[in-house]
Write a structure and sequence with these properties.
This protein is of the alpha+beta class. 52% of the residues lie in helices and 14% in strands. The chain has a two-stranded antiparallel ribbon with strand order 1-2. A two-stranded antiparallel sheet has the order 3-4.
Length: 111
């Protein structure tokens, strides 16, 4: 399940999503439901999604660099015991860096 509202739209004016499966039987059932209940994007929603895609690359780069700056700040903070940035977690595996997972985890020392 993928939300097009946040990452694809980027402007808080789009509500949508996508269901993706490798199960052919489930795909056929979902296709029937999509048609039967009219769960498809309107032309205007499609326009909004396309508009958001134009800036997706820039927004993802900015989110990754912001998350990296926050992780670096937390690494130098005396009350933070450990920071698990997703770029460091991903580097332990054979993932391509294009799949940037945004965010970080940290463990704080008890006051």
């Amino acid at each position: 399940m993928l939300s097009t509202s946040k990452y694809i739209g980027g402007h808080s004016d789009l509500i949508g999503g996508a269901l993706i499966t490798t199960d052919e039987s489930l795909a056929k059932r979902l296709d029937f439901l999509k048609t039967a209940v009219g769960a498809i994007a309107s032309p205007f929603d499609s326009y909004l999604a396309l508009r958001g895609l134009k800036t997706l690359d820039l927004r993802m780069e900015r989110q990754c660099s912001n998350a990296q700056m926050i992780a670096e700040f937390l690494e130098s903070h005396p009350k933070v015991l450990q920071v698990y940035s997703f770029s460091s977690i991903l580097s332990q595996y054979s993932f391509n860096e294009t799949y940037c997972i945004l965010g970080f985890l940290s463990r704080f020392a008890e006051s």
